[in-house]
Design goal:
Length: about 210
């Protein structure tokens, strides 16, 4: 099985959330069949740092989730996609895992929230961060979660095959991000598939 990690560059032009969402949906359409596809955190609201605009971008979550569901079914692929959404009356940072039939296999709600998400009104997850699909044991971390050893230790106890990590990493150097990822892989004896945003600032999006 092939791995496809969709990782856009930061976008500094107008309407970055729309441009990044368009890029990701286009790349989904062109992803490899029979693969595991991983998208970054805030796939529907990338590039935003303003509360009002982030809340407005929530309405795009349903569209991009439906696209991911469709691609999973058509390409017989597993798709892991993170969105900022309103679900059951609460704002959630949610990672959806769609199985090869396009069905929702699992939803992971980010557990450890940074101050910016608390200010936004995001509700933290209840602790469920592991599932098994078609005999594959999946673990989940989202961005800020990687700093919390107790969650990593919990995942290690579950003996995952693959840990999925959508990220929105801005503050760390590439060396530190790589070291964190290697540590998680080593501690959990697992593959780690991480999708984030590159540090390259540019006026047009390019494939990474």
């Amino acid at each position: 099985m092939k791995v496809v990690v969709l990782q856009p560059a930061y976008f500094v032009g107008e309407n970055p959330d729309e441009k990044i969402a368009e890029f990701l949906m286009y790349e989904l359409e062109n992803a490899t069949n029979n693969s595991i596809i991983v998208l970054p955190e805030y796939s529907n609201a990338g590039g935003l740092s303003d509360v009002k605009r982030e809340l407005k971008a929530i309405s795009r979550a349903k569209t991009i989730l439906e696209k991911a569901r469709k691609v999973a079914k058509e390409k017989s692929a597993y798709v892991a996609i993170n969105v900022l959404e309103d679900r059951d009356g609460s704002i959630k940072n949610s990672t959806y895992l769609f199985n090869k039939k396009g069905e929702t296999a699992f939803i992971y709600d980010k557990i450890h929230l940074p101050p910016s998400e608390i200010d936004l009104g995001v509700k933290h997850g209840d602790g469920a961060c592991f599932c098994e699909v078609d005999g594959i044991r999946f673990g989940f971390l989202t961005c800020y979660d990687v700093y919390y050893n107790e969650q990593i230790e919990y995942l290690a106890m579950q003996k995952p095959d693959i840990i999925l990590v959508p990220g929105y990493q801005r503050g760390e150097s590439t060396d530190i991000i790589r070291a964190q990822t290697k540590m998680i892989a080593f501690r959990c004896n697992s593959y780690v598939l991480k999708s984030s945003y590159s540090k390259v600032f540019q006026n047009t999006l390019k494939k990474n």
